[in-house]
Amino acid sequence: MVDLSSDLGFLRLKNPVIAASGTFGYGLEFQPLYDLSQLGGLVVKGLYFKPREGNPPPRLAETPCGLINSIGLQGIGVEAFCQEVLPKLALLETAIIANVCGEEEEEYARVAEYLSRHQGLAALELNISCPNVRAGGKCPAQDPEATYRTVKRVKQVSPLPLITKLSPNVTDITAVALAAEEAGSEAVSLVNTFLALAIDLESRKPKLGNVLGGLSGPAIKPLALRMVFEVARQVKIPVIGLGGIFSYQDALEFMVAGASAVEVGTANFVNPLACPEIIKGLEDWAESHGLNRLSEIVGSLKV
Ligand code: SIN
User: Fold this and answer.
1) Could you name the CATH architecture of 6-54+72-194+216-297?
2) What is the model's pLDDT at position 1?
3) pTM for this structure?
4) What is the per-residue pLDDT for 210?
5) How far is CA 131 from CA 68, 74, 100, 206, 212, in A?
6) Are 75 and 48 in contact (CB under 8 A)?
7) β-strands 187-190, 239-242: how paired?
8) pLDDT tens readout for residues 70-85
9) Which of 46, 87, 97, 131 has its CA 20 to 30 A from that of 120?
10) Catalytic residue at 130?
11) C-alpha of residue 152 to centroid of ligand 1, in Å
12) Where are the domains of the chain?
């Protein structure tokens, strides 16, 4: 048997495959389809303190090799999550990670502090990179100083390990990753979606109610892979890679580029069984390549 585990230092995952936030509901929606304990982990939909309606429709536009969304972080809020969802998720033998959102620093801290008072979470993912909630797609992860301040503030109130989710909509993602690391983030996950526009030609209107949205899916994989490679060479904390992972080969490429674990997002919409299929593919590939531990390949790109 190949050892598929991924040791992030602050958390040991049974395998490196994590279902990505915003593409997997609160996890329970996928329970009828397969045993979620197969997953390395799952990140629930973004949580603000209060319930949130999200952006006006339409919220999704398909492209030839990707999906543009402008959901606007619709969600049930931390109270309903901790009362109705977390107790059920906590029964699963997989790492449950909450995606933490906020209008400003204090709300990020309030959400993180509230979640930390409840049993069942393995870590928090700090969502400072959603392009759909501020005008023009702006987000704190576009600024190293805002990233540093938000991470630092959340670390003051929560003992849970923190994974900071980074935006690709920057000139130098390594500067933001280093700021997160310096402020005490235990890991970084990258990348969130690329700011994008879809146009309906007949009406000459944007296809999305919020005008701009975030592009995910296979179109962004080479860009995300490049950013993971760049960041993994600069930071000492673990890197979790995401962006267009649809197959076990995609997951392996991210690991070779330096990711200790991966998140699978848009693929869950196309194939709800994407995560367990990728895990099986990783196991078969490692076995056929004579590996004892899959983690041997992390950062093994020959350059
Ligand atoms: C959204 O809800 O608009 C997408 C979530 C994200 O990009 O973080």
Assistant:
1) Alpha-Beta Barrel (3.20)
2) 87
3) 0.98
4) 97
5) 11, 13, 15, 16, 8
6) yes
7) parallel
8) 999 999 999 999 999 9
9) 131
10) yes
11) 22
12) 6-54+72-194+216-297
